[in-house]
Amino acid sequence: MPTVSVGRDRLFAALGKSYTQEEFEDLCFSFGIELDDVTTEKAIILKEKHLEEEKPSLDDEVIYKIEVPANRYDLLCLEGLAQALRVFNGQEKIPRYTVANISKESMLKMHVKKETSLIRPFVVCAVLRGITFDEASYNSFIDLQDKLHQNICRKRTLVAIGTHDLDTLQGPFTYEALPPPEINFVPLKQVKNFRADELMEFYKSDLKLKKFLHIIEKSKVFPVIYDRNRTVLSLPPIINGAHSAITLKTKNVFIECTATDLTKAKIVLNTMVTTFSAYCKRKFEVEPVEVISYDGSSSVYPDLSEYNMEVPLSYISGSIGVPLEVDEVTSLLYRMQLHAEQAGLGEKKISVCVPPTRSDILHPCDVMEDVAIAYGYNNIPRRKLSSLKPLPLNQLSDLIRCEIAMNGFTEVLTWILCSKKENFEMLNRKDDKSTAVIIGNPRSSDFEVVRTSLMPGMLKTVGHNKDHPKPLKIFEVGDVVLLDDKKDVGASNRRLLAALYCGANSGFELIHSLVDRIMEVMGTPFVPVGNKTGYFIELSDEPEFLSGRQAKIIYKGRRIGIFGIVHPEELEQPC
Questions:
Q1: Which range among 56-70, 203-217, 259-273 shows the weakest confidence by mean pLDDT?
Q2: Please, are residues 311 and 368 in contact by the beta-carbon 8 Å criterion?
Q3: Which residues pair with 309 in a beta bridge?
Q4: Could you tell me which residues come within 8 angstroms of residue 345 by beta carbon, excluding any fewer than 6 positions away?
Q5: pLDDT tens for residues 381-397?
Q6: 55 — pLDDT class (breaks 50, 70, 90)
Q7: By CB neighbour count within 10 A (0-12 exposed, 13-18 middle, 19+ buried), where does 204 fall?
Q8: Helix axes 364-375, 326-335, angle to 10 degrees
Q9: What secondary structure does DSSP assign to 121-164, as a single string?
Q10: Residues 529, 530, 531, 532: what is their CA dihedral angle, to the nearest 10 degrees?
């Protein structure tokens, strides 16, 4: 989940109250967030530079790192976080966001050219008039853009945000897509002109921007935004122009979001303007911009309208497990920045008014979750649902784990993904392409296939614990996956047991006795070879075990397992 770094003193000033660390942790837990770390600005800088940390002094600013839900974009900066906590504590009312009441003729216009459909087809815009920045709020404004870019914007692939000093520009604006050599401007923090294709080369050495170049660099046309005088505002999603850069003295901010996903673009724009409209002369008011498409259709942004959702009271109470009345639910929802009231006279339903800041409210379960948070998870009585019963396979697995542990073995848990080498070569087996599920796009060579045996993980565990006092007695009960044409997904899970002994002697008799004990507790008798009423063992010839020192376990005519001494060649393999 995303982590928001805020200065403790500034946060407490915004909350109008100071807290001890324990008190603030309790407040965070009550609101459904978590104080992840307490550090200082100096410590963060030293850590980024990989330098040794120093003892904090009394002059160092204390930084709170707060973990927030991934879909709560309104909490990604101090302003949104402080406002939500003030409403939660009953210190202020829920703000109402409005769009400035101006005629379409007076609105700024953004004209979209047809060519943009080839690369980045959508753009939404808004204006924050009469805004006042100080250094802290300015930094928070920039930081929120970075947080959104990393989160909902998916590293600018879905949405890219551009912010500009409107007083340096003249509308109307145009959103175009042109061949790179035709785009020429001075980018942010530079002093000379660059062609767009030159910028691609220039930023390949930039640690921050080079990771975004792949989004457009192979396209025949690049998206670009101009004002009436053909001044470049931005080359999305890479860089803004230097001409319209915002500063601490900026009073009117023009915000544009270009996107491949219109819904995400609206959410991002709403998050930016609702959070920082608090610094505007007309608080919580945003000036709209008309976006005119190449086909003549037009839309006005931002859309700050609220929408209503009806949720049965029985659903909320039943899901949480606490009998609640309408008045209690509405007051709890108000603490979570949701206006609510009873709907109709028949069945008790709650009509919830969802503001533009709460894009995470999509379903009645989201409303129910907010009620549960405001009520307090610790206040919900614990109960065991009668309908919840463990699967028979899991019950059996737990019983077997308990039995093996009582025989002196220690349980381990290893990765279900492994490399092809570990799954085959390490066990002296050849990949016949008929057993293992291959990972289509593995993150690394360590996770190429889904294991078909528990042995690789067991051997790696021993390899990483060579210095551990001997003997080592470990076991694992876990799933493997095998290709299976009879299944609709083409593969099936199998629950297996593996046990390993590593000591001064082979331990063959110990593993043999463990097999006998497991079969005994399963109620399966040992029978003569060929008898199908129980189990027996026969000599086997598997490549992962030493020849003549291995046996297969036969139950009702079918091989169900194997045990033996691991082949020396496997022990020489690097882990």
A1: 56-70
A2: yes
A3: 352
A4: none
A5: 887 777 778 889 999 99
A6: low
A7: exposed
A8: 90
A9: -EEEEEEETTB---HHHHHHHHHHHHHHHHTTTTTTTSEEEEEE
A10: 120
